[in-house]
């Protein structure tokens, strides 16, 4: 992606459906033989990967329009998610719970580490084991079997999003009551619970730290509208602030963005919320802030790289602490190549501004890091080239087109 920076973004842009809500929701199609119809599905690489995984297991998928898909898993014909697949998209590990619940067996590759940290799946496995599954780890795969899972009371060491979703999907068809304590409260977990409820599941407490699931004998088909992507919305809000422009982000899920709105205001951006969504503008210089990533409703780790780019432009010293992933500052050395002044020590990054950023060739290391670099490029002098853009395509729908429509000079060239 080649960006010529320095142009304030102006105009209105619409947010796509949430990637992180869509991925587990697609997997939920395994829980019934009836059709699941999903609307507001973002056209992303990860979504196509998840659908290909389901097709490999016996699903038929039919696109009804650009953003609506009908999935039907009449019969589960395979029981394995391979290493090749899971290593490219960790979120496919959540196939374990629904596959096991539907068929009594599942073989899913463990994902291994990734660019942002170790990211183990121990909580997923412990939770599903607590529901009575016999689980073996063999040749890098989790092999799980159970005639029928039975409800249990379990407590998560930390409120893992993926583990909460995986266990929830295992528990909906289990015998009896499952209680997940210290569950993740993320809106994406809530969206999955809404779909499962529409399929006939009995779930209460999604969005709180204690989720209760009363298992049912069977689930049926349902139609569901995916929530808008709060991380895409937050990224576009930062784009408005970093370029000193004025952008209305239509259908931004503003209630889910309270922490982000608060931090943007603290840094000097003007943020107004109305029925249309959220409008972000900035005319004064940016101010330094302190920022700490936390599980929802705390500040999302998925917006940390974007905020780091923003804070290179604040007049003074900002402090960012990353508490979710242990290695999530891979974007910092790339920002330094563009002229940012960032010192990292453990989980903390000290960002001294304001730095005059100058365009450079930089490399994306993961999905959100690549967005941080694009944002820095929008604020930099001259030309920035961000390579390995496939990371971006995993999670942002038509980002270059959306930014161009707001006045950015951004172009995709073949690598
Ligand atoms: C999800 C999101 C990702 C986001 C993250 C945190 C999806 C597809 N991805 O990832 O974009 O950055 O939430 O908001 O929704 N952990 C364990 N053991 C486990 C599981 C997790 O120790 O079994 C740890 C992780 O290493 C990490 C923390 O828990 O340090 C949070 O991870 P988790 O909430 O599970 O993230 P994901 O579901 O992988």
Question: Which descriptors apply to this entry?
Answer:
single chain; 14 helices; four-stranded mixed β-sheet; 415 residues; alpha/beta
Describe this protein's structure.
32% of the residues lie in helices and 25% in strands. It has 415 residues and is an alpha/beta fold. The strands form 6 sheets. Strands 22-23-1-24 form a 4-stranded mixed sheet. It is elongated, with a radius of gyration of 21 Å. The structure holds uridine-diphosphate-N-acetylglucosamine (UD1). Uridine-diphosphate-N-acetylglucosamine is lined by residues 20, 23, 90-91, 117-124, 158, 160-163, 184, 188, 301-302, 324-325.
Indicate the topology.
Layout: E1 2-4, E2 10-14, H1 19-27, E3 36-39, H2 45-56, E4 60-65, E5 68-72, E6 80-81, H3 83-88, H4 96-103, E7 105-109, H5 122-130, E8 134-138, E9 141-145, E10 153-155, H6 161-171, E11 177-181, H7 187-198, E12 202-204, E13 210-214, E14 222-225, H8 230-243, E15 246-250, H9 258-266, E16 270-274, E17 277-281, E18 290-292, H10 304-311, E19 317-321, H11 331-337, E20 341-345, E21 348-352, E22 361-363, H12 367-379, E23 383-387, H13 390-395, H14 399-405, E24 409-411
Parallel strand pairs: 2-15, 3-14, 6-7, 10-11, 18-19, 22-23
Antiparallel strand pairs: 1-23, 1-24, 3-5, 4-5, 7-9, 8-9, 11-13, 12-13, 15-17, 16-17, 19-21, 20-21
Helix pairs in contact: 1-2, 1-7, 4-6, 5-6, 6-7, 8-10, 8-12, 10-12
The structure holds uridine-diphosphate-N-acetylglucosamine.
Uridine-diphosphate-N-acetylglucosamine (UD1) binds at residues 20, 23, 90-91, 117-124, 158, 160-163, 184, 188, 301-302, 324-325.
């Amino acid at each position: 992606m080649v960006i010529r920076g320095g142009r304030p973004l102006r105009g209105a842009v619409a947010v796509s459906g949430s990637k992180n809500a869509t991925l587990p929701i697609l997997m939920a199609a395994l829980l019934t033989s009836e059709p699941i119809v999903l609307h507001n599905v973002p056209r992303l690489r990860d979504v196509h990967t998840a659908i290909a995984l389901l097709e490999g297991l016996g699903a038929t998928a039919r696109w009804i329009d650009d953003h609506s898909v009908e999935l039907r898993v009449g019969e589960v014909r395979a029981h394995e998610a391979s290493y090749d697949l899971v290593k490219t998209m960790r979120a496919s590990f959540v196939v374990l719970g629904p596959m096991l619940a539907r068929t009594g067996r599942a073989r899913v590759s463990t994902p291994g580490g990734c660019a942002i940290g170790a990211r183990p799946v121990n909580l997923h496995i412990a939770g599903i084991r607590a529901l009575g599954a016999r689980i073996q780890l063999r040749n890098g795969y989790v092999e799980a079997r159970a005639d029928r899972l039975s409800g249990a009371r379990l407590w998560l060491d930390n409120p893992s999003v993926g583990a909460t979703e995986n266990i929830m999907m295992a528990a909906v068809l289990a015998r009896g009551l499952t209680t997940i304590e210290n569950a993740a409260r993320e809106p994406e977990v809530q969206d999955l619970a809404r779909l499962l409820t529409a399929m006939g599941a009995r779930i209460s407490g999604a969005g709180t730290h204690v989720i209760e699931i009363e298992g049912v004998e069977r689930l049926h088909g349902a139609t569901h509208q995916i929530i808008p992507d709060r991380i895409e919305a937050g990224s576009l809000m930062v784009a408005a602030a970093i370029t000193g422009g004025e952008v209305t982000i239509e259908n931004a899920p503003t209630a889910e963005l309270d922490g982000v709105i608060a931090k943007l205001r603290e840094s000097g951006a003007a943020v107004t919320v109305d029925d249309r969504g959220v409008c972000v503008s900035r005319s004064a210089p940016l101010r330094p802030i302190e920022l700490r990533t936390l599980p929802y409703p705390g500040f999302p780790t998925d917006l940390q790289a974007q905020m780091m780019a923003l804070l290179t432009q604040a007049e003074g010293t900002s402090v960012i602490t990353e508490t979710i992933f242990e290695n999530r500052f891979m974007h910092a050395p790339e920002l330094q190549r563009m002229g940012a002044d960032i010192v990292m020590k453990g989980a903390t990054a000290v960002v001294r501004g304001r730095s005059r950023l100058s365009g450079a060739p930089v490399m994306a290391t993961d999905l959100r890091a690549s967005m941080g670099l694009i944002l820095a490029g929008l604020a930099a002098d001259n030309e920035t080239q961000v390579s390995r853009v496939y990371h971006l395509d995993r999670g942002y729908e038509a980002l270059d087109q959306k930014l161009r429509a707001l006045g950015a000079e951004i172009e995709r060239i073949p690598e």
